[in-house]
Structures are given as C-alpha cells and as structure tokens.
Amino acid sequence: MQEYKIVVLGPMGTGKSTLVQALAGGQVVNTDVRNSDPAALKASTTLAMDYGDIPLPGGHRMRLYGTPGQRRFAFLWPILLEGASGAIVLVDATSEATRTLAISHLEAIAGHSPSLPVVIGLTRQDSFSVSQLGDCGHWLQSTAPSLPAIPVDPRKPQQVLTLMDVLMSQIECQSLVRALD
C-alpha cells in the first residue's frame, strides 16, 4: 500500500481550502476561523490546516494538508512538509502582491526539501487580463522557471484533478529515478 502526503501552500485567498475540499469530496477537517484581517476580502481563514484523507484504487491513500497562508504561520509550513510526497503552491495570478508572497512558500519548500516535486496552480484565471498574463509569465520565469504551472479553478474538481495528475506524474518519475540508482 502506498501513501501520498500532499501539502497545499500559498498566500491567503488563493483557494487552498477550496482545493482540498474539491479533492476530498467535502470530507475535510478544517480549522477555519473568522477572518480578522480587513485587507482580505473573505469571511474566514485557515488557522492551522485543512486535512483530507482520500482512499485511492489498490488500497493506496492520499493525505492532503492545506496550510494557512499568512506569513505569521510560516513556522507550520516545514512541520507540514515533513514526510511530504509532493506540494502544490497556489498563486493568485492576477495579483502581484500575492505572487510576491508566494515566493516565501517556494522558499520554505526549497529550504526544507529541495527535491520535493512541486506544481504551481495559477488561480483566478476567470478575471485575467492580457497584461496580467504577461506579468505572471515574467514572475514564473524569474521565480520558478523549472516548475510546471497549471491554470486551475479550485472550485472545479476536473481542473483540480488535472493539477494532481501533473504532480503525481512528477512523484512517480522521481520514484522511478530513485529505484534506478
């Protein structure tokens, strides 16, 4: 039996909780509390983590951990990354500020496990302008040129599954390389 631990990181409001809920079919343990940050336009925010446990074919399991996005909870990121099989970093592609904040999540991964398979999910595609597309492309090229970046709407399970397919392919490739060494 194989167990996969997937950690979902990203700034506040990028869709981490929604993505975990979409994959886990709503069967999620969450630690959402009322949002007290007036700058963030959302009613609640994750305090510790979201958790989903998903049975896979063949008796395998996927355990999903959604992290809190605020920088003050950065101490949790390495704890949740311990033993991870892979990570997803969600980035609001329309927000330069959010892209800048996402760098700290990528740095946490690189500092904890530089060879960890990672996929970037670009959210908020529905309100994307041409200039934002160029800005986001430049950000990706300068920040994470070797990481796959996939447009995703965390509310749409099929798009989330596509993102997961890319991450699972990376995880499987890494396992094959290790087996050949």
For the biggest sheet, the summary is:
7 strands, mixed
Give the integer mean of the pLDDT values: 82
Q: Fill in the CATH topology.
A: Rossmann fold
Going by helix content, strand content and strand pairing, the class is alpha/beta
N-to-C CA distance: 22 Å
Strand content is 15-25%
Helix content: 25-40%
Across the major sheet, the strand order is 2-5-6-1-7-8-9
Unreliable sequence segments: none
Organism: Stenotrophomonas nematodicola
Family: Belongs to the GPN-loop GTPase family.
Keywords: GTP-binding, Hydrolase, Nucleotide-binding
Protein name: ATP/GTP-binding protein
What does this structure look like?
- With 181 residues, the chain is of the alpha/beta class.
- Strands 2-5-6-1-7-8-9 form a seven-stranded mixed sheet, with helices on both faces. A two-stranded antiparallel ribbon has the order 3-4.
- The longest helix is centred in the last third of the chain and has 24 residues.
- It contains five helices and nine strands, in the order βαβββββαβαβαβα.
- The chain has one domain: 3-Layer(aba) Sandwich (Rossmann fold).
- The radius of gyration is 16 Å and the shape is globular.
- Keywords: GTP-binding, Hydrolase, Nucleotide-binding.
- Belongs to the GPN-loop GTPase family.
Could you write a compact summary of the structure shown?
Belongs to the GPN-loop GTPase family. With 181 residues, the chain is an alpha/beta fold.
